[in-house]
Amino acid sequence: MSIAGQLQKIHQQITESTIKCHRDPAEIRLVAVSKTVSADKIHEAAAAGQRIFGENYLQEAEEKYRRLSGLAEFHCIGHIQSNKAKIAATIFSMVQTIDREKIARELNKHRQELGKPLAALVQVNVGGEEQKSGVKPGDCESLLDAIQELPWLRVCGLMTIPPYSSNPEDSRPFFRELRQLAATLTAKKLFAGSKVELSMGMSGDFVVAIEEGATIIRVGTAIFGER
Fold first, then answer.
1. Largest Cα–Cα separation, the chain
2. pLDDT by residue (tens digit) across 145-202?
């Protein structure tokens, strides 16, 4: 199936899933995960109406940004080293992977130089996996407190990657935990803006994520095929 066909299929699944749980399909933003995907394929997806693409690697993302700026916008969904924060602040419209104060301060500094606030999410390691980035759920509040002092960084929600499982239902308790954590932090007025974003769910489990409150889903393989 073509990339356009795959996108159509995913949007149909989004619509069916949201209607089933009494949500509006317009609440869901699809991020097409395009790491290691060629600029030509991204261009094909953009021509089919896809706007937001997720990138993990800065050097690769920077090249795609140069080629496709104006046709697409990019979200950072990978770990950022503080010495690469200037590039990240320049090319991404959202960074979904804030997990420490140092990188938040670096991004804030560089966005101040650009004169435009940066949308961001705090990445939470809900599964407690040592190999994964993300702040511990119990440390999320203190990180958000620190970010309150950074006027050029607008943290509007949370992101997570649950432990891998071939069964989508295994992701549900982790998605639910993120939603509950977001509700607690929202009550303490720790997010910017009125809409709290929850970035959770990938190709194998995004339907479950939508049922648990996702507002952003990150889908790669189901659009572009196996890497």
1. 48
2. 999 999 999 999 999 999 999 999 999 999 999 999 999 999 999 999 889 999 999 9
Count of structural domains, the chain: 1
What single string gives the DSSP state of each residue in the chain?
Answer: --HHHHHHHHHHHHHHHHHHTT--GGG-EEEEE-TT--HHHHHHHHHTT--EEEES-HHHHHHHHHHHBTTBEEEE-S---GGGHHHHHHH-SEEEEE-SHHHHHHHHHHHHHHTS-EEEEEEB-TT--TTS--B-GGGHHHHHHHHTT-TTEEEEEEE--PPP-SSGGGGHHHHHHHHHHHHHHHHTT-SSSSSPEEE---TTTHHHHHHTT-SEEEE-HHHH---
What's the pLDDT at 140? 98
Domain range for 61: 3-224
Domain with residue 106: its CATH number is 3.20.20.10
